[in-house]
């Protein structure tokens, strides 16, 4: 296509010419523009032909002043160098040898795309820089222009090898060239391309060729997937913002709100129902109650700031501002969150008040428990042995001396300790029971003496008061004192001697005023001699020893206790039972190795299982083991191998120990062997001497 083919004749007009006449003449010639000269300035009028002119405009002088626009005039030799000027104008005058002519922008663009003049070679460079493939064809499907990207996408080395019909199909090309239609988004899977087709029209409306725009299909799919991902993220972000209970703002460095949650905590007071997006966080009235100076500080210092703040409406707010920085460290956003902590602040205040009273409440509770203890475990006795014990209790309870209660398991050492507390001047103060055998050795020290804040991993953040401190002013009852580890005996000695404790992790002692009552069913003197118990601690505990006799040594108490337990348990289980003839005598004949505890368990079992209103001797006998009285070791009355005799004595001793202590660990300690040895030989002893077990 030659450049001269793009040029058209100029129709000149005067200001007094009739509008309708100009439209008719221009329409008959196919002109779009008419021109006139105002001094040195050329102006153009775009003619509205036919229906476009409208019927409401009367005939009259051509109103060029209101509808005209300045026109660029370019000498023809300068056209190749002023291409960008021509492309930026709707219409341009060209000064040719034949006089002034004009060219329209679309015609000039077609010329550039189809021209083979090397004076416009930079246009080809421009085409080659486009990231999509471009191919320009004439009506005969011959390639007249292209870029390198198109050749690479079609895997061709030169344009002469391009057969447009074989690549894209004659049907699509005919649809564009013959009918002038645009065809978009045609997928060619073999080449992996997406193609768009557009016709090229000359100034007279005729189609001179077509343009094909090629895009890499995987690249488009990747962009589509990326776009979907962005859309999904945006949808998720809106869902998150809609579900937040906190009020949230995303602010740019100038203070303009970019995003905001739907929750309204503060701004609802000033802008109820309005959207804060687009408003300025620093100047808009909707944010006047907020500490905006904090956000300015975050922008200036690029650091997170969190603070508790009370609004003018009495709302307690947790206000946080977090800077968002890009890779270069430049601040790009500030995220502001507001959380209503009014209720939380109120609860924290109430919690502090409760914590400040907790120690007093604990002490009062222990005092109440101590006062109720005699009703739960009343002392019942009739024997002379227990009468002597109780007279001793009455005397020692008036003094704060350390007391050591001795006796077999189940004789009622805790009941005696509570009786001392109830009769002492400390009766209104706490009675704290500590079972030294029930608390794991790893926790015993922290339970006894307490610990400070952060003393060890997993510790309570506020620290913990030890049992000795809980008993301050009252009595601490150390049951099974023989089971306390040697490592803690020195600290316990200090509590008794100095009346002070060092919490775990603490450096300063805490003064105490407690009376110690200890209890054990083992011989502490023997433990001292074997190195299992500190001698100095033993003497500190053994200030006032009280020996509580076993139940078998006070048979006159058995009937009285049985009557008391039956009355208590029938009331508990809502039954009407009474002892029959011979039942109490059967109870008195039994050895009671478990003492008072065993007696109560037997009575409870009878109350629950007896199917009549009278508990007879036969019911009692069925509840008690066959043997009454202590187990007798059979004597050796004939010669036998020494090894066999030794094994027999070992078995009988193990059975005796198990009968008394009911624990392989305790039996092993008494016999001076390992627990595994007792466990192994105990099974053999049962098989050899079944009548002893």
Low-confidence stretches: 50-61, 268-273, 627-633
Kindly report the spatial arrangement of strands forming the biggest sheet: 9-8-12-11-10
| Content-based structural category | alpha+beta
Major sheet: size, sense and barrel closure?
5 strands, antiparallel
What's the total number of strands?
Answer: 28
**What overall geometry do the principal axes of the alpha carbons give?**
elongated
Distance between the termini: 124 Å
Average pLDDT: 80
Pfam family, one: HTH_50
InterPro entries: AAA+_ATPase (IPR003593), AAA_lid_NorR (IPR058031), Homeodomain-like_sf (IPR009057), HTH_TyrR (IPR030828), P-loop_NTPase (IPR027417), PAS (IPR000014), PAS-assoc_C (IPR000700), PAS-like_dom_sf (IPR035965)
Protein name: HTH-type transcriptional regulatory protein TyrR
Domain Sigma-54 factor interaction: 379-608
Q: In a few lines, what is going on in this structure?
A:
One of its GO terms (biological process) is regulation of DNA-templated transcription. The protein is of the alpha+beta class. It has five domains: 11-114, no CATH class; 120-221, PAS domain (Beta-Lactamase, 2-Layer Sandwich), CATH 3.30.450.20; 375-549, Rossmann fold, CATH 3.40.50; 552-623, Orthogonal Bundle (Helicase, Ruva Protein, domain 3); 642-688.
Task: Explain how this protein is built.
Pfam families: AAA_lid_14 (PF25601), HTH_50 (PF18024), PAS_4 (PF08448), PAS_8 (PF13188), Sigma54_activat (PF00158). Keywords: Aromatic hydrocarbons catabolism, ATP-binding, Coiled coil, Nucleotide-binding, Transcription, Transcription regulation. The protein is an alpha+beta fold and 693 residues long. The chain has five domains: 11-114, no CATH class; 120-221, PAS domain (Beta-Lactamase, 2-Layer Sandwich); 375-549, P-loop containing nucleotide triphosphate hydrolases (Rossmann fold); 552-623, Helicase, Ruva Protein, domain 3; 642-688. It has 26 helices and 28 strands. A five-stranded antiparallel β-sheet has the order 9-8-12-11-10. Helix 25 (664-671) packs across helix 26. The longest helix is centred in the middle third of the chain and has 35 residues, at 342-376. It is elongated and about 150 Å long. Mean pLDDT is 80; it is low at 50-61, 268-273 and 627-633.
């Amino acid at each position: 296509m030659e450049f001269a083919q793009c040029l058209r004749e100029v129709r000149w007009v005067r200001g007094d010419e009739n509008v309708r006449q100009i439209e008719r003449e221009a329409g008959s010639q196919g002109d779009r523009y008419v021109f006139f000269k105002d001094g040195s300035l050329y102006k153009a009028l775009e003619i509205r032909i036919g229906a476009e002119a409208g019927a409401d405009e009367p005939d009259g002088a051509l109103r060029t002043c209101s509808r005209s626009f300045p026109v660029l005039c370019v000498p023809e030799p300068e056209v190749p160098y002023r291409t960008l000027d021509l492309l930026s104008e709707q219409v341009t005058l060209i000064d040719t040898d034949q006089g002034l002519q004009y060219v329209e922008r679309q015609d000039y663009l077609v010329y550039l795309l189809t021209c083979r003049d090397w004076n416009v070679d930079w246009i080809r460079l421009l085409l080659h820089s486009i990231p999509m493939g471009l191919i320009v064809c004439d009506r005969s499907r011959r390639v007249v222009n292209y870029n390198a990207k198109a050749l690479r996408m079609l895997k061709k080395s030169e344009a002469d090898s391009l057969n447009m019909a074989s690549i894209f199909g004659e049907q699509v090309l005919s649809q564009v060239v013959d009918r002038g239609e645009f065809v978009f988004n045609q997928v060619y899977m073999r080449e992996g391309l997406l193609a768009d087709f557009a016709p090229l029209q000359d100034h007279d409306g005729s189609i001179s060729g077509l343009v094909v725009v090629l895009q890499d299909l995987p690249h488009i799919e990747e962009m589509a997937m990326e776009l979907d991902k962005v859309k999904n993220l945006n949808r998720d972000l809106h869902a998150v913002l809609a579900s937040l209970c906190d009020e949230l703002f995303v602010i740019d460095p100038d203070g303009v709100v970019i995003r905001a949650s739907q929750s309204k905590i503060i701004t609802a007071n000033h802008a109820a129902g309005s959207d804060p997006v687009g408003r300025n966080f620093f100047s808009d009235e909707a944010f006047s109650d907020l500490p905006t100076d904090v956000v300015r500080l975050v922008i200036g210092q690029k650091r997170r700031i969190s603070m508790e703040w009370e609004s003018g409406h009495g709302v307690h707010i947790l206000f946080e501002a977090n800077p968002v920085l890009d890779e270069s460290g430049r601040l790009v956003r500030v995220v502001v969150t507001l959380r209503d902590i009014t209720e939380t602040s109120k609860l924290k205040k109430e919690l502090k008040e409760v914590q400040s009273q907790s120690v007093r409440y604990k002490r009062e509770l222990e005092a109440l428990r101590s006062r109720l203890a005699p009703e739960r475990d009343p002392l019942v006795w009739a024997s002379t042995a227990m009468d002597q014990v109780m007279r001793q209790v009455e005397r020692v309870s008036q003094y704060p001396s350390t007391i050591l209660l001795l006796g077999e398991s189940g004789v009622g050492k805790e009941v005696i300790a509570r009786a001392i507390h109830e009769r002492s001047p400390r009766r209104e103060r706490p009675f704290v029971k500590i079972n030294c055998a029930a608390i794991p050795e790893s926790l015993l020290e922290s339970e006894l003496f307490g610990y400070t804040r952060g003393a060890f991993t997993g510790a309570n953040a506020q620290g913990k008061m030890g049992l000795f401190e809980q008993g301050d002013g009252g009595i601490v009852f150390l049951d099974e004192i023989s089971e306390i580890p040697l490592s803690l005996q020195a600290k316990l000695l200090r509590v008794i001697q100095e009346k002070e404790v060092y919490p775990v992790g603490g450096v300063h002692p805490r003064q105490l005023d407690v009376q110690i009552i200890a209890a054990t069913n083992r011989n502490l003197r023997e433990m001292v001699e074997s190195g299992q118990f500190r001698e100095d601690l033993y003497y500190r505990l053994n200030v006032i020893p009280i020996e509580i006799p076993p139940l078998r040594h006070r048979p006159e108490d058995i009937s009285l206790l049985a009557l008391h337990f039956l009355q208590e348990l029938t009331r508990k289980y809502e039954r009407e039972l009474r002892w029959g003839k011979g039942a109490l005598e059967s109870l008195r004949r039994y050895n009671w190795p478990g003492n008072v505890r065993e007696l109560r368990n037997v009575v409870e079992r009878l109350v629950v299982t007896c199917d009549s209103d009278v508990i007879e001797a036969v019911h009692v006998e069925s509840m008690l083991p066959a043997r009454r009285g202590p187990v007798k070791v059979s004597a050796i009355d004939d010669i036998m191998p020494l090894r066999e005799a030794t094994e027999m004595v070992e078995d009988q001793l193990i059975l005796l120990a198990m009968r008394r202590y009911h624990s392989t660990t305790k039996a092993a300690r008494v016999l001076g062997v390992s627990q595994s040895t007792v466990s192994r030989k105990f099974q053999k002893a049962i098989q050899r001497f079944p009548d002893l077990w």
